[in-house]
Amino acid sequence: MRFYALLCLLALAACPSDKPTPTGASCPDPNNPQFTWDNFGSDFFCHYCTNCHDSGLALNKRNGAPLFHDLDSLVGVMEVMVHTDEQAASGPKAHNTFMPGAGTGGRCPSMLGGSLDEDCPMPTEQERINLGVFLACEKARPDDYQGSNGSYTDHCANYHGPH
Ligand code: HEC
């Protein structure tokens, strides 16, 4: 492990991290972000996260996902923005792949609040990189998170249910 970490350092490459690490992702242009809640965020979180991390789920329906980690709205995501970056995003300083799957042996519910009945659908590396940039841009954005772009939505309903 130590040798591997050393190799990573020597190569100056971002290596899969064995503990949650900030990705160091940055936003090229906060005033004109490539990834928005509408064109990226809501799809990403609905697809990979909200069957456990939905604001409508009681604690006993979350398969261990903590309360107040609700990823079905932009506001909810930004409340846990740092942890989300450290758990699921990729960037120059880390490739974080803890979520989905950490704590549940890689198993996920195929339906909102269901039992762990499938292997978690996994984001691609490109999607994880995009997530890092998305979060960095949302953090840097000049406007409030509330409003029409990013409010609670039933959009995730499209993703719940058998794939
Ligand atoms: C199987 C249901 C499930 C899914 C799907 C899931 N999570 Fe989790 N999440 C958990 C569990 C369980 C924990 C607690 C893990 C632990 O403490 O070891 C957790 C914890 C977290 C935390 C808090 C970590 C901390 O230490 O504060 C964040 C942030 C998070 N998840 C983000 C995500 C993101 C982003 C996705 C989608 C890419 C996702 N999760 C998908 C179950 C899930």
The whole-angstrom Rg is 16 Å
Strand content: under 5%
| Shape designation | globular
Q: What percentage of residues falls in helices of 4 or more residues?
A: 25-40%
Short description:
This protein is mainly alpha-helical. It contains five helices and two strands; from the N terminus they run ααααββα. A two-stranded antiparallel sheet has the order 1-2.
Describe the structure.
The chain has one domain (29-158). Helix content is 32%, strand content 2%. The chain has 5 helices and 2 strands. The protein has helices spanning 2-11, 37-48, 74-79, 81-88, 125-140; strands at residues 107-108, 118-119. The protein has a two-stranded antiparallel ribbon with strand order 1-2. Helix 2 packs across helix 5 (125-140). The longest helix has 16 residues, at 125-140. The mean pLDDT is 86.
Keywords:
163 residues; binds heme C; mainly alpha
List the topology elements.
Blueprint: H1 2-11, H2 37-48, H3 74-79, H4 81-88, E1 107-108, E2 118-119, H5 125-140
Antiparallel strand pairs: 1-2
Helix pairs in contact: 2-5
